Each structure stands twice: as structure tokens, then as C-alpha cells.
Amino acid sequence: xxxxxxxxxxxxxxxxxxxxxxxxxxAMVFPLVGLAQxxxxxxxxxxxTSVVFVNxxxxxxxxxVPDQVTVAPGQQVHLIVTQAATFEHTFTLSSVVNATIDxxxxxxxxxxxxxxHPPLYNISLGMTPGATFTEVFNAPPLGSYEYVCTVPTxxxxxxxxxxIVAIPASNSGTxxxxxSIYIWIGIGVAAAALIAVGVLLASRSREAxxxxxxxxxxxxxx
Length: 222
Known about the structure:
By secondary structure, the chain is an alpha+beta fold. It has 2 domains: 17-41 and 173-213; 51-169, Immunoglobulin-like, CATH 2.60.40.420. Helices cover 32% and strands 22% of the residues. The chain contains 3 helices and 9 strands; from the N terminus they run H-E-E-E-E-E-H-E-E-E-E-H. The protein has helices spanning 17-38, 107-116, 174-213, and strands at residues 51-58, 64-65, 68-71, 76-83, 90-93, 121-124, 132-138, 143-148, 160-165. The strands form 2 sheets. Strands 3-9-8-5-6 form a 5-stranded mixed beta sheet, with no helix packed on it. A 4-stranded mixed beta sheet has the order 2-1-4-7, with no helix packed on it. The longest helix is centred in the C-terminal third of the chain and has 40 residues, at 174-213. The chain is rod-shaped, with a radius of gyration of 38 Å. It starts with 16 loop residues before the first helix and ends in a 9-residue tail after the last helix. 15% of the residues are buried.
């Protein structure tokens, strides 16, 4: 009778190895992806979603209160100018971006300047204290625009201010913050991959130990 040599049955690879590694990787990546989506850059304000009210007063002391205002690009501006004096003032908003009118200009030179550069708005405030005047418009392009009173000697006495259109400081660094999110995602993916490899190696190590500890089973004679 011919006896065949002993044969060793290799235990099959557990079916849960790959699903377990994948589950660990997904558990690491999904929260980070969700964080990136939740931390996106806020949308730029648009006229339909962002409104700002700007109040400026023309005083009897020949100055503007305040003499500097700031709005964001795309905002709908509700400008309210109040007359606080008993004599004439004008609110004249220059259309020339990032330009400062020479404070030594004579009344005639100031008049000529606005003849050559028509203002965005030129409002006569009259002589009634407490009178208010409203203009609604979309913020002009980024930059600085001067507003003055064109009544002779008022500008020369210091009645000028600065209307600034600028990106809000809270948005600065958005690009860097967004970049950091993707860096964290990369770290998370790498960590998930290492964990998955560790789980797979541990499973194979257990399989090898089990194989080494299982005594060979003889094949029944034929």
C-alpha cells in the first residue's frame, strides 16, 4: 500500500482583514473631509445679501463726523448725511480713486477739479439743522474716495473726509487657513494608511503563528 506524505492545510485568510483596514482608513478621513467642507471661505458680500448704513454729519465747526468711513466691496451702501449747521453745506463724493485733493486749493480750483472729474454724488444740504439726505448705491471699486464740502472756504478749513472701500480684515488669511485644512487632510490620510498597514500586518502575523502552532494532519490512506 502506498502511503502519501502528510499534507498541511493552509488556513484561509480571514475575510475581515481588508474590510477592517478600509473601515479604519475611512473613519480617519471622513471627519477631516467634513471639517474642510465646513471651514470653507465665506462668500464675498453681494448687493443682495450685504447692506451697510453709513451716517455722516456736516457740523457747524466745518468738519465731517466721522471724517473716515469704511465699507466692503459689493455692499449696498445706505448713505445718510445729516445737516447740523444753520448755513449751507454740500456733501460731494469724489469719483477719483486713491486721489487726495490738494488742501491748498482755492475755491475756484476746487470748483474746476469737480468740473473735470464729476463727483459720484453732490448733495446740497440746505440750511435746516437736522435735515437728512439719503443715497443708496453699490460700493465703488476698491480704494479711497475723498468727500468734501464745496462751499467756498469750507474745504480749505478742513471739511474733507475719506470714504474707503476695502476687504474686511476678518477675511485676511483665509487662503492660509484653507491651505492648512488640506495639510491636515493629508496627515489624516497618511495616518489612516499606516493604521491600515499595521492592521494587515498584525492579521498576517496571527495567521503565521496559527499556522506554525497547528500540527500537520495526515492524509487518510486511499
